[in-house]
Design goal:
By secondary structure, the chain is α/β, with parallel strands linked by helices. It folds into three domains: about 90 residues, D-Maltodextrin-Binding Protein, domain 2; about 80 residues, D-Maltodextrin-Binding Protein, domain 2, CATH 3.40.190.10; about 80 residues, Alpha-Beta Plaits (2-Layer Sandwich). Helices cover about 30% and strands about 35% of the residues. The protein is built from nine helices and 15 strands. Strands 1, 2, 3, 4, 5 and 11 form a six-stranded mixed beta sheet that branches. It has a five-stranded mixed beta sheet with strand order 8-7-9-6-10. Strand 3 and strand 4 form a beta hairpin. It starts with a strand and ends in a 7-residue tail after the last strand.
Length: about 270
């Protein structure tokens, strides 16, 4: 199987893709939009995307892309995220003037930068990509924050492990496929969907009541603006699946109150143990 990801070899997305399919061939893309385009065009069989971090919140761009493309979620996994300070081998901490990484990774290591005020955090497009650049330039005044896999892949040295402010740091990843090729697991226990209500009093309450009437437990709800329609919103929700019948009935009732309903996938919820 070929799986597209956004990011370089050794990135957390790379690790998640191999957790989904250990023998997969990984196609590395520069942008998330390219990941989805490759999947929709049939260049790859699937894509692995981060959808939510337990500390930083949702990856909102990916929700928008899920809504706009004819794809569906097939599986979910939870990846424990550990950030490491990586340098050119032999570099001392005192030599560093800046550290590169993805903005979310930098934000999750604030305590390190508060303790080392002389080191500037510099945003970069990818965690593993920051290690790749540092090693290509052999820049001993720069470091990178990324995974141990990225250090091993590019030959960097882990100078300080586990820089994250909070050790309970997990990222949810989805394995997505073209909708007509998605296989729903027989033990699926979670549903992700998007819906839009009319902009009038009581419509959102009515939509949420559709879930409550079926005894469905909402585990997440988040709104996103509708592009080109100011002050209108799409609501993204996750809910626990007690039975296929109750899920179908909830969707039928939801449609009564909504101008748009799209199921994004039915799948088995990821567990912290993987």
């Amino acid at each position: 199987m070929q799986i597209a990801i956004q990011g370089e070899p050794g990135s957390f997305s790379h690790e998640a893709a191999l957790r989904f399919v250990p023998e997969a061939t990984i196609l590395h893309c520069s942008y998330s939009s390219e990941v989805f385009r490759r999947l929709v065009d049939g260049d790859v069989d699937a894509a692995a995307i981060p959808i939510e971090n337990s500390l930083a919140g949702s990856v909102v761009e990916h929700y928008d892309l899920l809504l706009d493309n004819d794809v569906a979620v097939e599986r979910e996994t939870l990846l424990s995220i550990h950030h490491n300070l990586i340098v050119v081998p032999g570099t001392a901490l005192e030599r560093l003037t800046r550290v590169y990484s993805h903005p979310i990774a930098l934000a999750q290591c604030r305590q390190f930068f508060e303790k080392h005020a002389g080191i500037e955090p510099v945003p970069f497009y990818d965690t593993a990509g920051s290690v790749k650049q540092m090693m290509e330039l052999r820049d001993r005044s720069a470091g990178a924050i990324a995974s141990t896999q990225a250090a091993a892949w590019y030959g960097g040295e882990v100078l300080a492990p586990n820089l994250e402010d909070n050790p309970e740091n997990y990222t949810r990843f989805f394995l997505i496929r073209r909708k007509q090729e998605t296989i729903t697991s027989p033990d699926a226990d979670k549903v992700s969907l998007a819906f839009r209500v009319e902009n009038r009093p009581g419509t959102l309450v009515g939509a949420l009541q559709a879930f409550a009437n079926q005894g469905v437990n909402l585990t997440k709800i988040e709104s996103r603006p509708v592009h080109g329609r100011p002050w209108q919103y799409v609501f993204y929700t996750d809910y626990q699946l007690s039975s296929s019948d109750s899920a179908d009935r909830a969707l039928e009732l939801l449609a009564v109150h909504c101008s748009m309903v799209k199921e994004l996938g039915r799948y088995r919820a990821g567990r912290i143990d993987g």
